[in-house]
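Q: How do we represent a protein-ligand complex in a form that can be generated token by token?
A: Start from the inputs.
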Amino acid sequence: FRNKNGFPTNWPVVGMLPALVMVLPRIHDYFCEIMEEFQLTFVYEGPWFTNMNVLATVDPANIHHIFSKNFGNYPKGSKFKEIFEVLGDGIFNTDSDLWQYHRKMAQSFIAHPQFHKFLVNKIWEKVETGLIPVLDHASQQGLVIDLQDLFERFTFDTICTIIMDHDPKTLRVDLPDLPSFKALNDIEKAFLHRHAVPVCVWKLQRWLGVGQERKYRQSWEVLDAFIYECLSKKKEEMSKRSASKERKSHNEVGIDLITLYMDEVQQSATFGSNRDKFLRDTFLNFLAAGRDTTSVALSWFFYLLTRNPHVLSKIKEELDSMMIHLKYHHDDGELKRSRLNYLSRNFEELNGKLVYLHGALCEALRLYPPLAFEAKVPIEQEILPSGHKVDPNMQIIISMYAMGRMKSIWGEDSYEFKPERWISETGRIKHQPSYKFFTFNAGPRTCVGKSMAFAQMKAVASSIICNYHIEPVKDHLVIPDISVILHMKHGFKIVVKRSSVHTKLGD
Ligand code: HEM
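Then emit the structure tokens for the protein with protoporphyrin IX containing FE bound:
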């Protein structure tokens, strides 16, 4: 499947498709090999007459050009919108004016100090009332648990709470299978299916209402029902409050995103009768953007810690040094509560001080970016900085997974998990340009939820590291799934033990 120069063989009629099919089960690693070998850019020739030519690139100069310098030439486009049609006219799926409108609103609400307060409060509430009880239960009963599943539940509950002021409580000891939680998983599978099969195939399946497309439609209905119910509850609550002229003080808990959006939408004449649809699209986009990305990042982070105990020790040292005065509690429960209280009460301050933890999270996000691929199609033909020509019949694929592992970008030790890479000589976080550390995208469409994600990851990471010891189940295979989101194919099976009381904090 490769010719003597190392290129995938370009066969008559079928092009390089056989080589691609052969490597599909290990596509992420294959991308790494081929990108390093071909100086970061490679043209894949698809079967004849299919318009399936692809330019795969991880060259930072190309990324900078596509995502920032000539951003206007690379919109999401109609194909993307068709595949992700359930997301409606939300921020992910739109271009031009409507996207700008979404973007401005999202940025201003996420930066709202009252929303930030709400976010931090709710994240810690979920840690204390959801995550810790489930881990304690597993520790007491000696259960094997799937940490990836736990994190998905954690992020689903927190994201629903912070954007819709509704906690579905999927993170409980009995781990319930709620329809809305499951529906989001099925929708994600359908996205992959629509990417993988020819358009005419999935469109026929959609028309017939069969296979993955049937599940897609059903999940769509479940999610709509869930979101519209949350919206109507919130509206009812808001109108009751304004009827009774009651002014709820937000100072204590802060303001959720739905209240900020509803206030804006009520006052704007732009929406007419489409207000509910706008809110539905907005919340579904946030839900899709914020759940699996953060949970997958946490899963790989803990996986890397179990394989790099020296990094875990350094994170513990950093956390210990912040909580020095809590070392001498002797009652186990009391100690755990004190640590948690301390972390949650001082989170704002700690968030900026936990430099090593921040570096370790960035390092995990570099090696295992939650979104593994990004695709673009140019509107007009042009030459990229690498010298390759692209045109509207060509798809450009960027493998974030390969990009984070290139020796020519990150150095000879690019495969090593080294948080030190992110720390400057003065002990501060070293900034890396987004066209090099591409995990959160680059340019005008950079992830708007990055700081939200870091707040969640730090809260979860510090509470678990301070209170528990995690042991991966022996012989359980941890490998990335072949999907747009870099899930662990078989989850991350672990046993958890509460840290001993009598050892030094962090031992
Ligand atoms: C570790 C966690 C996360 C990672 C790695 C991540 C990564 C990304 C990436 C790569 C994009 C670009 C996607 C594209 O345009 O195709 C993106 C966009 C976006 N992200 Fe995140 N994200 C994370 C967490 C979050 C969270 C928690 C939220 C908030 C709920 C969020 C909200 C968004 C939104 C709204 C966009 C669309 C921005 C736009 O198109 O203008 N993300 N994110």
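The two ends are 51 Å apart (CA to CA). Residues 332 and 501 are 5 Å apart (CA to CA).
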